[in-house]
Amino acid sequence: MRITLDSRRHLRRFLAEDVGRGDVTGALLPGGVITASIITRQSATVAGTSHAREIFRLKGCRCRTIKPDGSRASAGDVIIKVRGEARAVLACERTALNLLSRMSGIATRTAELAGRLPAGVRIYATRKTAPGLRTFDKEAVEIGGGMRHRMKLDESIMIKDNHVAAASRMTGLAPEAALEHLIRKAVGRRGSIEAEVDSIGDAIIAARAGAGTIMLDNFTPRQVRTAIRRLESEGLRDRVRIEASGGITGRNISAYADSGADMISAGFITHSVSGIDMSLEV
Q1: 5-106+274-281 with 114-271: one CATH topology?
Q2: Which among 81, 83, 94, 241 is annotated as catalytic?
Q3: Relative to the CA of 12, which of 135, 192, 257, 271 has its CA 20 to 30 Å away?
Q4: Residue 94 is a catalytic residue
Q5: For this structure, is 238 an active site residue?
Q6: Residue range 114-271, CATH number
Q7: What pLDDT sits at residue 155?
Q8: For the residues 79-87, what does the mean pLDDT come to?
Q9: Which helix or strand (DSSP H or E) is residue 21 part of?
């Protein structure tokens, strides 16, 4: 992946956080150049190599990628080779490994889940990411075969339950009427409109009001199928995309994929990351 000015700024901050005023242990080493390899201890879908290389480059090191982003690596495989001044290599070690391990963990989990979905159904990331790491977390999802969904609140309109509750409280409208009011108010504004609903009745209201995507929140696979049949009977199915979200795990994602939903979003792929065990060996 291409390193942007924004990602480089984050990488500088990550490195500065770890190094502080200077690596006092590294300062004990004599001057000189070393070579080192980043090795995975687990099978993984690799993600984050461009960012790991950039971290080393910030300290003047040279890197060569052996396993590029998106490739499969087996336990014991070399991911990146590094050459540079010993103090610089070791100052970057933990920051590079932390990011590479996290991103590869996300990509690996995403790839496992995406492999269980039929053609035309995609898994989407949510905004349940670690603060400061959203760009990297969502990039890892994409490398693993998923979709980023919206990155920030300014990208598209997503009317959630608390928006409806707040509008209902402030206007005196019933929740169903508040949902319809917010969607109709959003029609014609920049970006797409998505509405989160927790009942089939609200799904019908949202589709009629003009939502382009309807998120069925915490519906079971059977309830998703029922909601889709109702939308079809009302002549509304072709107007909307259906997103299944909430309570989705590796154990039930196949059932959701068979429910007829167009999109499946899962927060756990980014908020409950199992990093890949990696190490740097001189």
Answers
A1: no
A2: 94
A3: 271
A4: yes
A5: no
A6: 3.20.20.70
A7: 84
A8: 97
A9: none
